[in-house]
Protein backbone atom coordinates (compact mmCIF):
# COMPACT_ATOMS: atom_id res chain seq x y z
CA UNK A 1 0.00 0.00 0.00
CA UNK A 2 2.88 2.38 0.79
CA UNK A 3 4.40 1.71 -2.63
CA UNK A 4 1.04 2.26 -4.33
CA UNK A 5 0.55 5.52 -2.44
CA UNK A 6 4.02 6.64 -3.53
CA UNK A 7 3.17 5.91 -7.19
CA UNK A 8 -0.08 7.84 -6.88
CA UNK A 9 1.83 10.75 -5.37
CA UNK A 10 4.26 10.76 -8.28
CA UNK A 11 1.42 10.63 -10.76
CA UNK A 12 -0.08 13.70 -9.16
CA UNK A 13 3.07 15.80 -9.47
CA UNK A 14 3.14 18.34 -12.31
CA UNK A 15 5.18 17.43 -15.37
CA UNK A 16 8.13 19.74 -15.92
CA UNK A 17 8.28 21.82 -19.08
CA UNK A 18 11.03 21.03 -21.58
CA UNK A 19 13.19 23.80 -23.08
CA UNK A 20 14.81 23.19 -26.48
CA UNK A 21 17.01 25.67 -28.33
CA UNK A 22 18.71 24.95 -31.69
CA UNK A 23 22.19 26.50 -31.92
CA UNK A 24 23.72 24.52 -34.81
CA UNK A 25 22.47 22.86 -38.00
CA UNK A 26 24.14 20.30 -40.25
CA UNK A 27 22.93 17.64 -42.70
CA UNK A 28 21.14 15.05 -40.53
CA UNK A 29 22.58 16.59 -37.34
CA UNK A 30 21.69 19.44 -34.99
CA UNK A 31 23.32 21.03 -31.95
CA UNK A 32 20.68 21.66 -29.29
CA UNK A 33 20.48 22.97 -25.74
CA UNK A 34 17.95 21.05 -23.66
CA UNK A 35 16.75 22.46 -20.33
CA UNK A 36 19.69 24.91 -20.19
CA UNK A 37 22.21 22.04 -20.02
CA UNK A 38 25.42 21.80 -22.06
CA UNK A 39 24.95 21.74 -25.86
CA UNK A 40 24.43 18.28 -27.36
CA UNK A 41 24.98 17.17 -30.95
CA UNK A 42 22.17 14.88 -32.05
CA UNK A 43 22.06 12.75 -35.17
CA UNK A 44 18.73 11.89 -36.78
CA UNK A 45 17.11 9.20 -34.64
CA UNK A 46 18.90 10.18 -31.40
CA UNK A 47 16.80 10.84 -28.28
CA UNK A 48 18.03 12.83 -25.28
CA UNK A 49 15.84 13.74 -22.28
CA UNK A 50 12.69 12.97 -24.25
CA UNK A 51 13.74 15.08 -27.26
CA UNK A 52 14.13 13.07 -30.50
CA UNK A 53 15.72 14.48 -33.66
CA UNK A 54 13.63 13.45 -36.68
CA UNK A 55 15.31 15.48 -39.45
CA UNK A 56 17.86 18.26 -39.90
CA UNK A 57 19.39 20.35 -42.67
CA UNK A 58 20.57 23.94 -43.13
CA UNK A 59 17.00 25.26 -42.94
CA UNK A 60 15.97 23.77 -39.61
CA UNK A 61 15.62 20.77 -37.31
CA UNK A 62 12.47 18.71 -36.79
CA UNK A 63 12.20 17.34 -33.27
CA UNK A 64 9.65 15.28 -31.39
CA UNK A 65 8.97 16.38 -27.80
CA UNK A 66 6.41 14.57 -25.68
CA UNK A 67 4.87 13.12 -28.85
CA UNK A 68 4.61 16.55 -30.51
CA UNK A 69 6.55 17.49 -33.66
CA UNK A 70 8.17 20.91 -33.98
CA UNK A 71 10.43 22.34 -36.71
CA UNK A 72 12.91 24.85 -35.28
CA UNK A 73 15.20 27.18 -37.20
CA UNK A 74 18.66 28.29 -36.08
CA UNK A 75 18.41 30.07 -32.74
CA UNK A 76 14.73 29.27 -32.36
CA UNK A 77 13.49 28.23 -28.94
CA UNK A 78 10.59 25.97 -28.01
CA UNK A 79 9.18 25.21 -24.58
CA UNK A 80 6.52 22.65 -23.78
CA UNK A 81 3.93 23.63 -21.20
CA UNK A 82 3.79 21.84 -17.86
CA UNK A 83 0.71 19.66 -17.53
CA UNK A 84 -0.66 21.91 -14.80
CA UNK A 85 -0.38 24.93 -17.08
CA UNK A 86 1.96 26.51 -14.54
CA UNK A 87 4.55 29.04 -15.66
CA UNK A 88 8.14 29.52 -14.52
CA UNK A 89 8.64 32.26 -11.98
CA UNK A 90 11.11 33.84 -9.60
CA UNK A 91 10.59 35.81 -6.37
CA UNK A 92 13.04 38.60 -5.52
CA UNK A 93 13.50 40.24 -2.13
CA UNK A 94 14.77 43.85 -1.86
CA UNK A 95 18.03 44.81 -0.21
CA UNK A 96 18.19 47.39 2.59
CA UNK A 97 18.00 50.20 -0.01
CA UNK A 98 14.95 48.74 -1.72
CA UNK A 99 16.86 47.52 -4.76
CA UNK A 100 16.25 44.11 -6.31
CA UNK A 101 19.58 42.38 -6.89
CA UNK A 102 19.81 38.78 -8.09
CA UNK A 103 22.27 36.28 -9.51
CA UNK A 104 21.52 35.06 -13.02
CA UNK A 105 23.18 34.15 -16.29
CA UNK A 106 23.83 35.66 -19.69
CA UNK A 107 24.74 33.18 -22.42
CA UNK A 108 25.29 30.57 -19.69
CA UNK A 109 27.77 32.62 -17.61
CA UNK A 110 27.13 34.02 -14.13
CA UNK A 111 25.99 37.64 -13.87
CA UNK A 112 24.82 39.81 -10.97
CA UNK A 113 21.72 41.76 -12.03
CA UNK A 114 20.07 44.92 -10.76
CA UNK A 115 16.39 44.99 -11.76
CA UNK A 116 15.79 48.34 -13.48
CA UNK A 117 12.37 49.05 -15.03
CA UNK A 118 13.77 52.37 -16.26
CA UNK A 119 16.28 50.64 -18.54
CA UNK A 120 14.93 49.94 -22.01
CA UNK A 121 17.16 46.91 -22.50
CA UNK A 122 19.40 44.56 -20.55
CA UNK A 123 22.47 46.77 -20.17
CA UNK A 124 26.08 45.72 -19.62
CA UNK A 125 29.35 47.53 -18.92
CA UNK A 126 32.19 46.83 -21.38
CA UNK A 127 34.16 44.88 -18.76
CA UNK A 128 31.30 42.42 -18.31
CA UNK A 129 30.71 42.11 -22.08
CA UNK A 130 34.39 41.24 -22.47
CA UNK A 131 34.18 38.57 -19.77
CA UNK A 132 31.13 37.08 -21.46
CA UNK A 133 32.86 37.00 -24.84
CA UNK A 134 30.33 39.34 -26.47
CA UNK A 135 31.61 41.03 -29.66
CA UNK A 136 29.82 44.29 -28.94
CA UNK A 137 31.74 46.33 -31.53
CA UNK A 138 29.98 44.37 -34.27
CA UNK A 139 26.65 45.62 -32.89
CA UNK A 140 24.75 48.73 -33.95
CA UNK A 141 26.34 51.87 -32.53
CA UNK A 142 24.18 54.45 -30.82
CA UNK A 143 24.05 57.00 -28.00
CA UNK A 144 22.35 57.00 -24.62
CA UNK A 145 21.79 59.89 -22.23
CA UNK A 146 22.98 59.07 -18.69
CA UNK A 147 23.52 60.98 -15.46
CA UNK A 148 27.11 61.56 -16.61
CA UNK A 149 26.12 62.83 -20.06
CA UNK A 150 25.78 61.17 -23.45
CA UNK A 151 27.41 57.72 -23.66
CA UNK A 152 28.30 55.52 -26.64
CA UNK A 153 26.38 52.23 -26.62
CA UNK A 154 26.23 49.18 -28.87
CA UNK A 155 23.06 47.19 -29.49
CA UNK A 156 23.62 43.43 -29.30
CA UNK A 157 21.50 40.27 -29.24
CA UNK A 158 22.00 38.07 -26.18
CA UNK A 159 21.51 34.36 -26.87
CA UNK A 160 19.94 33.72 -23.46
CA UNK A 161 19.24 35.52 -20.18
CA UNK A 162 18.39 33.49 -17.07
CA UNK A 163 16.98 34.61 -13.74
CA UNK A 164 15.93 31.85 -11.35
CA UNK A 165 13.75 29.37 -13.25
CA UNK A 166 13.12 31.84 -16.08
CA UNK A 167 15.24 31.62 -19.24
CA UNK A 168 14.52 33.89 -22.20
CA UNK A 169 16.21 33.57 -25.58
CA UNK A 170 17.21 36.23 -28.10
CA UNK A 171 17.06 39.16 -25.69
CA UNK A 172 18.07 42.64 -26.88
CA UNK A 173 20.94 44.18 -24.93
CA UNK A 174 23.08 47.31 -24.78
CA UNK A 175 26.79 47.48 -24.04
CA UNK A 176 27.91 50.81 -22.52
CA UNK A 177 31.44 51.96 -23.37
CA UNK A 178 31.57 54.88 -20.94
CA UNK A 179 32.45 54.56 -17.27
CA UNK A 180 29.63 54.78 -14.74
CA UNK A 181 27.79 51.51 -15.34
CA UNK A 182 29.39 48.93 -13.03
CA UNK A 183 26.72 46.22 -12.94
CA UNK A 184 24.30 44.51 -15.32
CA UNK A 185 20.86 46.13 -15.49
CA UNK A 186 17.93 43.78 -16.04
CA UNK A 187 15.91 46.07 -18.26
CA UNK A 188 12.60 45.92 -20.09
CA UNK A 189 13.80 43.76 -23.00
CA UNK A 190 13.67 40.98 -20.37
CA UNK A 191 11.07 42.29 -17.92
CA UNK A 192 8.44 43.03 -20.58
CA UNK A 193 8.34 39.32 -21.37
CA UNK A 194 7.25 38.58 -17.78
CA UNK A 195 4.30 39.46 -15.58
CA UNK A 196 5.57 41.54 -12.65
CA UNK A 197 3.72 41.94 -9.38
CA UNK A 198 4.56 43.20 -5.90
CA UNK A 199 3.63 40.98 -2.95
CA UNK A 200 4.53 42.94 0.15
CA UNK A 201 8.16 43.95 -0.32
CA UNK A 202 8.90 41.07 -2.71
CA UNK A 203 8.82 41.27 -6.50
CA UNK A 204 7.50 38.24 -8.40
CA UNK A 205 8.30 37.70 -12.08
CA UNK A 206 6.30 35.12 -14.04
CA UNK A 207 7.42 34.11 -17.53
CA UNK A 208 4.95 35.09 -20.26
CA UNK A 209 6.73 33.94 -23.45
> What percent strand?
over 45%
* Apparent shape: globular
What's the end-to-end separation, in Å? 42 Å
CATH architecture level-2 label of the largest domain: Beta Barrel
Helix content: 10-25%
Number of strands: 18
Largest sheet: 7 strands, mixed
Number of domains as seen in the coordinates: 2
Per the CATH scheme, the topology name of the largest domain is Cathepsin D, subunit A, domain 1
Could you say which structural class the secondary elements and strand pairing correspond to?
A: mainly beta
**What is the CATH homologous superfamily assignment of the largest domain?**
Acid Proteases
Please tell me how large the radius of gyration is: 20 Å
Task: Enumerate the spans where pLDDT stays under 50 for 5 or more consecutive residues.
Answer: 1-15
Order of helices and strands: HEEEEEEEEEEEEHEEEEHEE
The whole-number mean of residue pLDDT values reads 82
Counting DSSP H or I runs of 4 or more residues, the number of helices is: 3
Q: Which class of the largest domain in CATH terms?
A: Mainly Beta
Explained architecture:
- The protein has 209 residues and is mainly beta.
- It has 2 domains: 2-79, SH3 type barrels (Roll); 89-207, Cathepsin D, subunit A, domain 1 (Beta Barrel), CATH 2.40.70.
- 11% of the residues lie in helices and 53% in strands.
- It is built from 3 helices and 18 strands.
- The strands form 4 sheets. Strands 10, 11, 12, 13, 14, 15 and 16 form a 7-stranded mixed β-sheet that branches. A 4-stranded antiparallel β-sheet has the order 3-2-1-8, with no helix packed on it.
- Mean pLDDT is 82; it is low at 1-15.
Amino acid sequence: MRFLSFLLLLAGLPAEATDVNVIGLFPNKAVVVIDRAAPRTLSVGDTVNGVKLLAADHTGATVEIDGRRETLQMGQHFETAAQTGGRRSVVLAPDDRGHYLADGQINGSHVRFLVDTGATMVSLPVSLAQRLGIDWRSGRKGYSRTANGVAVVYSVMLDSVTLGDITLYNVEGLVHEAAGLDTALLGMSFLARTDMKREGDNLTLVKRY
